[in-house]
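Bug #77: duplicate submission created two jobs. Keeping one. Sequence:
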Amino acid sequence: MALAGLVLTGCGAGGDAGERVPVENFAAEEIYRRGEYELENNRDPDTAVYYFSEIERLYPYSQWAKRALIMQAYSYHRNKDYEEARGAAQRFVDTYPGDDDAAYAKYLLALSYYDQIDEVGRDQGLTFQALQALREVIEEYPDSEYARSAILKFDLAFDHLAGKEMEIGRYYLKRGHYAASINRFRVVVEDFQTTTHTPEALMRLVEAYLALGLTDEAQTAGAVLGHNFQSSPFYEDAYAQLRGRGLSASPKGESWLTNVYRQVIQGKWL
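Kept job's structure:
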């Protein structure tokens, strides 16, 4: 069997990437090493998946099958076969929920959503799924090495959602659809207030409300902006717009923004 192992490895060293060797007569470890070789040296995730899958078929429920399954998930993800990566990662979690690598499998599953965020245009379904999967990593494996990375990616995905709301809001604002734009900016202020987009959302609210002649709401938006982001260039812009109308950045009247302002003053927001 040692000779067989040399033959299997030798094919990897001397053959072309993607060449698949029948492995029925090889030990699980030898097949696993060939999969590793294809992945690391030939940079061929498809062929690596073939070998890792063969271990599952030939040696089910063995330790090598378990290791091969997590490597399938990794190989699929590396090849940007995200749906297949999710499937393999989920099978690992379902089959080996208490294993040390379950945290990594869950993290790979989350990454398979996260890495598609920029590919999905305005359909944010995958972004929400990424947030949910990342949250599970953070909550279920808080002491794992993947939790910190999951937290960072969660914040970035959250910011991404806010950015999409801003993009749509700016689109409406530019075309004079003020009520529609206000709805989008309000979502950012109320639901995504910890993101980097909040100062601009408040400034855009000032702009949209002024365009509608709703000066109380515009002044209150300016007051919230000034209380939290006075050094921001967005506050300077909002202040200039208000001052140009003879208005101030102070709360006026009763609106959803007035409630936000009260929460700010009480220290319950941001």
